[in-house]
Amino acid sequence: MNSILKTIAGSLPVMLATGAARAQATVPSEALSLDERVNSAFAQATGPFVNLIFAPLPGTAFPWIVLWLVVAASIFTVYFGLIQFKGFGHSIALVKGDYSDPDDAGEVSHFQALATALSGTVGLGNIAGVAVAVGIGGPGATFWMILAGLLGMASKFTECTLGVKYRNEYPDGTVSGGPMYYMKKGFAERGLPGGGILAILFCIFTILGSLGGGNMFQANQAHAQIVGITGDYPGWITGIVFAGVVFAVIVGGIKSIAKVTEKVVPFMGILYVGAALIILIVEFDQIGTAFGQIFAGAFTGLGVAGGFVGALIQGFKRAAFSNEAGVGSAAIAHSAVRTKEPVTEGYVSLLEPFIDTVVICTMTALVITISGQLITDPATGRFVLDEAGTAIATIDGASGVALTSAAFATAFWWFPYVLAIAVILFAFSTMISWSYYGLKAWTYMFGEGRKTEITFKVIFCIFIVIGAAASLGPVIDFSDAAIFSMAVVNITALYFLMPIVKRELRSYNARRKSGEIRKFAH
Amino acid sequence: MLSRLVVGLDGGDTGSRAVDFARKLAARMEDCELILVYVIEWSPFSFQTAEENAQRHRRREEEIDAARSRIVTPAVEALQSQGVKVRGLVRHGNVSDALDRIARDEGADLIVVARTSDTGVASRIFGSSTANLVMHATVPVTVVG
């Protein structure tokens, strides 16, 4: 999700110009030294683990973890016979509710499960991550990003089908699901050893990822956004406010706050896509050129650092980090749906990387490409690199969120303000989602119960304050590494369990063909 | 021949007016069954948190129980004590869609609802449940004033 966080974090305060330099000096000096001590101790302790996860393949700059995700997605794509293309229409029909039993009205619908999972993945990755990919890898990175998004749909299909199939349904009517449950129960069912150990490993990484990337990083970025508008003030204030609001939602069960975000977050998403669409419609004559750059850049690099391999790495990386396909987090969110057929939720979930990466990330990339923020040499049509030679030079030196913001601002001057609010809200909804993922991992290890749940929720809220207050490079590196470790454990399990998904899929499609499963008349 | 009337309840005076009217109508018919329906407004296209989703099944049961014990059962029992043939249903969904669907499924001859007193911007734009029912119903509808 966030491995180039420091790049993004560094560029964020520039976005709204004013608070830039002051934001760096937020923390009082004695606290800073404490931070530094904590950071260096932490970095030393976790460094080897972080380096292992993000280690490049020998002789390249390509992190093996990205290859791991892409290879898995490709295998699932072939194994399930291009399910993301053949099953796309059926996915839409399921989300529309065509196959929902009217007697199940009032239960969690396919749409709701999808929307909930999306609110956990759509966020900074779509806004900042894409800008980084395009800024470093050029428009060509978009091509590889789209490809990775399309492949990732098959990974989601696999994990979410299993998530529903092996969830726990309790007598009190609540459900718990996710990779830890299919690891344990699925492995047992196939007579394989080690499911329990995988489940525990997965839970440990999920908790760490939930406190890091799903919490501290979000709080940190939200604070950077607010400071960009209001000017400098201490981060712990933002942290306390955020922690208070999150506490009210997840511990106090204050539904009204959750209800507001539920409505505002999709609205921000629609506003973002809508603004991008308007820009693309107005500049429609340039879309052809933009796609020309995307295709040409995908294979030649058009002069970006690292050539087309640079474009490919950036594209794959950002897609994988943005849609979390194969990480296993979505399997937790999707497992609450009401359905008798686990495969139906697999079908629905494959729309998630499509919406997140193929649609939203591509929009961002197109707007940046069309905006002319990336400087090209008019004589050769190749990109001009910045002074460091590592990224494409931009008009005002912006990168990350600031680049996206500047690109949108070429059409709407007020858009940076909307974007800042969007980033804050996305951060909030991502926190709520990840608090739940972490909670499920926590209760899997320590048992369900009000006391254990509250313990985790309080810890989660404390980490929000820490995340907003400190500069947390090593901690963020570590939590990123934890999130991708989830993918190592999860995909290992998926390889062993994919025959079960295949069986479910065959049976489901046979019954769909025979007419046993059909649309309900609404 | 048995006739069936579907009656919309709303837990207030409006619903009671519909019930009163349906009772009088039934009394004039030879063999008539009333089906009292309370619809819990719900949309499959709303946005929820993961935790709400996980607890949804339980909440739904609780909502149905509450609607039964507070609204539907008292109304059914009151009619039964007057010798009316009656049963009650609780459903989630859109009020007008749900009433129409139940009427079709049960083979009802008529839906009886009361005129709602919805005001405000929302009902101006989207129309009241009653207005929607009248416009889209596939079964005759009587609106009690």
From TrEMBL, chain A:
GO cellular component, one term: plasma membrane
Record-level Gene Ontology MF annotations: amino acid:sodium symporter activity
Chief location bin: membrane
Keywords: Cell inner membrane, Cell membrane, Membrane, Signal, Symport, Transmembrane, Transmembrane helix, Transport
Topology within the bilayer: Multi-pass membrane protein
Subcellular location: Cell inner membrane; Cell membrane
Family under the similarity heading: Belongs to the alanine or glycine:cation symporter (AGCS) (TC 2.A.25) family.
Entry protein name: Amino acid carrier protein
UniProtKB/TrEMBL annotation, chain B:
InterPro entries documented for this protein: Rossmann-like_a/b/a_fold, Universal_stress_UspA, UspA
Source domain of life: Bacteria
CDD domains: USP-like
Coiled-coil positions: none
Ranges of residues in domain UspA: 1-144
PANTHER family: STRESS RESPONSE PROTEIN NHAX, UNIVERSAL STRESS PROTEIN UP12
Family: Belongs to the universal stress protein A family.
Name used for this protein in its record: Putative universal stress protein
Species name: Oceaniovalibus guishaninsula JLT2003
